[in-house]
Give the backbone structure.
Amino acid sequence: MRIRLLTAILLLTAFMTVSVCVAAEKGKIDYPKRTIDMVVPYAPGGGADIVAREFAKQSDFRMRIVNVPGAGGAKGAIQSFLDEPDGYNIIIHVSRYYAFCDVMGIIKLPGFSWDKMVYLGAPVRDDVVFTVLKDSPIQDWDSFIQEGKKREVKVAGIGAHGTARYVTDQIAKNYGLKLVYVAEDSGMDTRTALLGKHIDVRWSQMSENKDLIDAGDVKVIATWGSERSVHAPNAPTITELGIKNLAEKDFTVDAMVRGFFAPPGTPEEIVKILEKEIERVSKLPEFKKYVESQGYTASFYSSENMKTYAKGWSTRYLEVKQYFEQLKKKGL
């Protein structure tokens, strides 16, 4: 009897040990057990929203999209920073937001730093473009310059003190144009402003214009980067146009890398699971086909790739910061 009991105890112990080892090896036994909230810091329909929804659709994890628009992406960033670091709260944002937030100091929350967020990986790249309506008097870069010398041309972008306004002001300075910058909260807001003819030129991402371009409703007059976009091969780049006070300062922006982040303190074992899922979905033929059709370039960036890409922006944003500090001193 004792031998049988001892044997049973040994077998049970061995089974429990094996079970624990298997659970530790798989790392997916306890996570995720429920729906993951994915914050999109912009209104529905924008570039981040499009990627988030398709990613959630293709993922093996249950995900719920939570749109938190406001302050050019800052409102959602703050919420995500303060969210519970349990793996059930993540956010999709552009990797350069790290430099923008921390160098520009636009978020005044005590202790906040985007550098503290956990980088998880990015599935796409998104080209930055200048677009106009098909019936606009502005049909290319030359006519944009001509109009800007005759009248006030309204250019819309996201945020009042970010890259879009800086670039708009530098273009105006370079050519001696009358450009008026219009700050909006999201890509959908800039889209509405252009289609409603409240502005003349829209600064946004290719993904937020692809359907309009395909329908012939808008036209790309320039792309912001060192290489032409595969989705608008006839549109010149800022580098080609030779805008000295931008190109000579190495302020080229080839694209926006849209990726995922988790709140500070998210457990490493959960981070690794999320990283693997992001890489898996990013490489799915169905996912790649869809994002390409929406104007993105399907390209997986690991968490380390994202960090490298983001940190390269720090020196560039110092230039932007100095510019706005000068404006502030002038009361502008």
